[in-house]
Amino acid sequence: MLPSFVDRPKGNEKGEFIALDLGGTNFRVLAVNLDGKGVATVLNVSKFAVHKKYMQGTGEQLFNFIADCINSFLTENGFKRTKTYDLAFTFSFPVQQTSIAAGVLIAWTKGFTAKGVQGKDVVNLLNEALKRKHIDCIRVTALANDTVGTLVAGSYKDPICDLGVIMGTGTNACYREKRSNIKKFKGPDFEGHMIVNMEWGNFDKVRLTCYDRELDASSVNPGAMHLEKMVSGMYLGELARRVLVDGIKRDIIFLNAPHAALIFKRKGSLKTSHMSLIEGDETAGLDQVDEFLKQKGISDSTLDDRILLKRLCRLVSSRAVGLGATAIAAVIIWMDPELRQMHTVAIDGSLFENHPGFPSKMTGVLRKLYGVKAEKIAWVHSKDGSGRGAAIIAAVAAFSEKNRKMMQE
Ligand code: GLC
Predict the structure, then answer these.
(1) Atom of ligand 1 nearest to the CA of 94
(2) Measured at the alpha carbon of residue 63, what is the angle toward residues 224 and 91, in degrees to the nearest 5?
(3) Rounded to two decimals, what is the model's pTM?
(4) Residue 188: is its pLDDT beyond 80?
(5) Cβ 16 vs Cβ 33: under 8 Å
(6) Residue 401's CATH number
(7) Domain containing 391: what range?
(8) What is the pLDDT of residue 229?
(9) Is residue 279 part of a domain?
């Protein structure tokens, strides 16, 4: 539970900001315009693949890569180097923030292990890299988690939005809390609310299966992020693969295709995107599943094999949906035990966006938990919310800084 140093925006924040989005296999640089009337528009965006050598090399290499990407973004989009641009850094890892624009990485998640970053202020590391690369036109004014960005972007337009959720490579949520309840916040104890980054991916009170335990043991952060490893896109395919391999070993599936065992033995041979394809196949003969298996080198699957494979994937993803929706319900129960008010959940992430039926299945679980009252909970798909939200946070920060200076003068 990490204080974010921001609350919901007012909706009248204005200006043009640059936002960075680091948190998975892609790094993005965006230019965002805020019209002051609840609309945050992405003007330019560049996407860069984060190769393993940067995720798992040194911090200096990772931050040099980030600075190089900013450089090419500025050049490609014609930003003048004589001006100064406020930049918001969405850094989607657990960070102990010490202000709106400073924070120390507690632990890497989602396969990142870059050395020399844990325990350091990531804004300092970014500033040092910008200096090394002679990029003088950037001022880093905000640091935010992607969930916080998503909630802020959602509530820029919709003032009843009070929960931000990511179901993507990782999973996490943030919500609004009374400042007086946030014991970890060391600032002045005044009235009002602050958004709390929950880091719920690290929740560990869920019962694990043998497959979860095996996956955990083979990950780069064993013992941590149990819920994330059961729910998010980085892990679901790998979980399903482990169940499949067990099924093959027990002669339950692919009885006529003995080489399937060898094909699926390799880590990464069944990805979450493959699960989406398999579960989305509505043809009677499961032709798309057949095509996928053929591409893998299994041309002799039976229809029963394909039905079983689809069912297996569905079991793994349904558990993820169930856990994700239940976690959302738990936060809403904390905020509003009787469900008296309406709540909008701003949500983003590749799993939510791309996995067949994910949003409607989440609604189904909420209905099971809440009955008709579930109608009080609405979703808004906050596309690119983390980047747009970070820009809004930068606008809030720039405004407070201007006010502070005016007060001093
Ligand atoms: C991981 C990170 C968290 C982030 C989430 C979604 O759980 O620890 O900070 O919000 O992934 O990207």
Answers:
(1) 9
(2) 50
(3) 0.94
(4) no
(5) yes
(6) 3.30.420.40
(7) 2-158+382-408
(8) 98
(9) no
